[in-house]
Amino acid sequence: MMNMKEIKKNEIRVRFAPSPTGYLHIGSARTALFNWLYAKKNNGKFIIRIEDTDRARHIEEAVRPILDSLRWLGIDWDEGPDIGGSYGPYRQSGRVETYKKYAQELIDNKKAYICFCSPEELQARKKTAEDQGLSFKYDRRCLSLTPEEIEEKIKDKQPFAVRLLIPDNEVIEFGDRVYGNISVSSDTIEDYVILRSSGLPTYNFSAAVDDMLMKITQVIRGEDHLSNTPKQILIYRALGAEPPVFTHLPMILGSDGQKLSKRHGAVSVESYRNEGFLPEAIINYIALLGWSYDDKSTIFSTGELVDRFSLENINKKKARFDYQKLLWMNATYIRKTSDRKLEEMLIGLIEKHIDKKKIQRNNLDIEKTVKMITPLIKERIKTINESLDWVMPFFTEVEYSKDMVGYFDKKLIDAPAVLSNIVSSITLLKDNFDSYRIENSLRKVSEEMDISFRKLAEVLRIALWANKVSPPLFHTMQILGYQTSINRINKYLKLIENR
Ligand code: GLU
What we know:
Arc Repressor Mutant, subunit A, elongated
């Protein structure tokens, strides 16, 4: 493939260059991950650069969540805005003088020129062209200004931009690692603005200048930037520098086949974090958005991804974001997590959600209880937050909805009798309230009443949990303890009797 210079492994330098949007989009996280995996695999350097020349204010707040999300995912960097490095600063807002210097160099070498055309004038000319059915390309009006005219206008304080002088009739060819050889005629590109009248650079200019100065060897980014690549290559050419090798990653689509966006639900890494997803699951899942190792393997630890990752295995086909698959993967990772670690996560979550006064009423020690609950729910939850439904009723009072109170009205079962018998039976266990004895005692009730155990369990479950689903019943009762179990059964009994 053309333009694929050999890059020595330890010289590999790749970068993730987010704009400060205030959150890390799942697609950007995938771009960051692929760059990071590539750097790790090849002993290269991974760099973060913030492209913030559009947004002068509140940058800090817009950058921090991006870096936090990356760290949470376990992605680290060798150079970046927070840690610096030999090619800083790593925020474009701190590099404005550099862009001006390179724009001036291009002007001096007749590769760029000053343009005084105002946006209104350009708009009017564009409209005229379009009215005649022509497409508008900047007509190089300002290219013919004499040095004296330019000086005069500058003295007059007329605002100006700087445009790149695109060479006529040139072919821009480059080999993209995913999309293959691409060839574009320079005639299709207008003399685009590289420096705005505000003195700030446009994206294509600052990105190319920075990639050059930061000695980036490979640019790995979203397919939406494929059309920017020829424009950036022209900057390299104008500055006499060698462009990096490009790899564009296939677009990520939502369930309806449209580009993944907020319309499809949560798109930020932070929101998945808040919903109770594990970073390893997210990493594994997004690694498969456009990359595959073989036809069958889906579960990869981060270490395995580093070992197996290669740009050759990225495919062109658009990737589809499948929330159900991500959920399944998260459940898989929850099961792989040690009980100790899960307990820590559950305790953090419970403490965040609990109303302290209510805990005292149930009088359960959070840590001890979570230790008992964790093995019971580990197989049942798909996100950490789902565990709230399973664990909170241990600590807080349960509230019976109307549906739950009337639940047995139309069923052929005498729920009050079942509950009364259960109470009499388990009262005998007061001092030995363990799951084994509870089970025996409940089975006896079902035999004596001649009702199926399934039916008895249904009644008891709603009484204890105010819900048709609960963690395994006998253990649940043991953890709740004798008194709370009896209290709940009696409370429900009263509710259904007194209607
Ligand atoms: N700031 C650009 C973006 O967020 C970076 C594109 C690139 O990697 O060159 O899309």
